[in-house]
């Protein structure tokens, strides 16, 4: 029989190897974080290149851990996806994002809110109904939301992903292909999925003012997107030269540290009021 030792919320059972024991404790920590409001909604502004106005934001989650402090999503999102915890987290993010959206609306700030979805979310048959319910409760129109999806999330189960995306799209929500250009078969999605936006991956944007190949890829992607009738957003804009190049290339929106790093959602309105295009 297993000798049991209590270490916080996790019961240690010797048969379980060290790594799965760590997984169990991470999962229980994530659950506790949700219960104790330890996640924070950060947002990063997106600027319309033609006018310089802030017209949208992307929701990016952070975890404020009681001992380990500030934790970036790359350190827990992959695990949350593997374990299915992401479904709970996505619901939390959608709820918070809708709350912020309706607060901004009430104060006259109209912004499109982008939220990231993962593989598991696309396989969640309940997601469209739950999302519709959140929007209705906060009296937000679906047109105020955009859902960002990566190619790898779609690849996992293209048939079910397509069903979920079509249900979301008929609601009136925008769909965006995130990290565009980093997958294997990006182009096929443009043909078959109800997409509204392309987000050029930051790996092509970061050094495009120095690297001619990157600049060519970015320019071609903008043209491709526009030829397909899509809005094109560049992420990873870190300096003025890149911002200017993107504007010259006719890119629709820019997002990146040059404009602002992600900030707590409660700080956004003040930031927008100080923003000078
Ligand atoms: P992503 O969706 O590609 O988000 C963009 C990432 O690039 C963010 O990292 C953002 O802070 C970062 N970034 C923005 N501008 C710049 C820039 O100018 N330079 C550089 N070097 N980086 C920039 P973050 O917030 O650490 O998020 C990392 C990833 O975690 C996201 O990548 C997304 O895949 C995932 N993620 C974050 N929040 C959520 C969420 O609520 N749900 C899901 N499913 N995934 C999330
Ligand atoms: Ca994204
Ligand atoms: Ca991205
Ligand atoms: Ca990414």
From TrEMBL:
Domain spans labelled EAL: 23-276
Portion of the full sequence shown: 508 to 784 of 791
Top-level taxon of the source organism: Bacteria
Listed name of the protein: Phosphodiesterase
Residues annotated as signal peptide: none
Species per Swiss-Prot/TrEMBL record: Undibacterium terreum
